Description:
Layout: H1 15-25, H2 30-37, H3 41-48, H4 56-66, H5 70-74, H6 80-85
Helix pairs in contact: 2-3
Amino acid sequence: MKNYRKAKTTVEVSVGESVRIIRELQELSQSNLAQLTGIPQSTISGIENNRINLGVERAKVLARALKCHPAVLVFPGWKLKDQIAA
């Protein structure tokens, strides 16, 4: 057992990765999401690839379309239980 490491229970993701993961979990293409939000597909691609900053207003629009809270997109690494214990 010395050759094994314990598996991590969390994964670090970027803002763009969080948008992509939530979009894919809802089986939406970038084009579908673009139609739902009015945000160009190229901009969604840029956000998902961390080339374009998400920004608060875009986060609100994307969150509405993805049926999640904007904070889920803007702060993907936030650990609520750590904040409660502090």
